[in-house]
Amino acid sequence: MTFMQAKNMSQTQSFGQHSGKNSSGQGYIRRIQPKSISEGLSDASGAVDYEKEIARVLGKARPSFLLDLVNKGDELTETDKEIITLVQQQIVEEQKEVVSQEQADSLLCILSKCYITGCEVHTLFPDFVHYTAGANPSFKPVSSMDERLRKGYELYKKNMNCTLIEVYQRHFCVVGNDGSTQVIEG
Question: How far is the C-alpha of 40 from the C-alpha of 32, rounded, in Å?
Fold first, then answer.
């Protein structure tokens, strides 16, 4: 599956889908109708809860091809890294469809498990950096992480079986091996 095919799939998945027999009783017709993006997310005054909208977008399952790329670890090619970046940019753009640019949550980095001996975790976005909790001089120490990245690292330690942790300005997204997500505010 190419990135564009996956992108088209995710666009299709953001619409409600209905199917039923056509009027002659033969075959099925598939109707695609847009879902209301703020359905059930407004308060009594009708104002949209933007944090819920952002959490809804961030909480979408990640495509399996992205998980396969991330699991390649240090064998990632430049093309693989570009695809990961494009998928993450698409998530940010989806936020901007439901909230203003100022309200959208920006991706700061992606953390994933590292399979190199002595390295515990590495970042995949925006740069590829190896971190260690030990004293290996070949890798950056975990203690050198900024506060936000360190919180993502702590989430990783609590969810060692996850595929990746996306660190945003106001949220964290724990992505499981099956693409499922858990959005955490903070």
Answer: 20
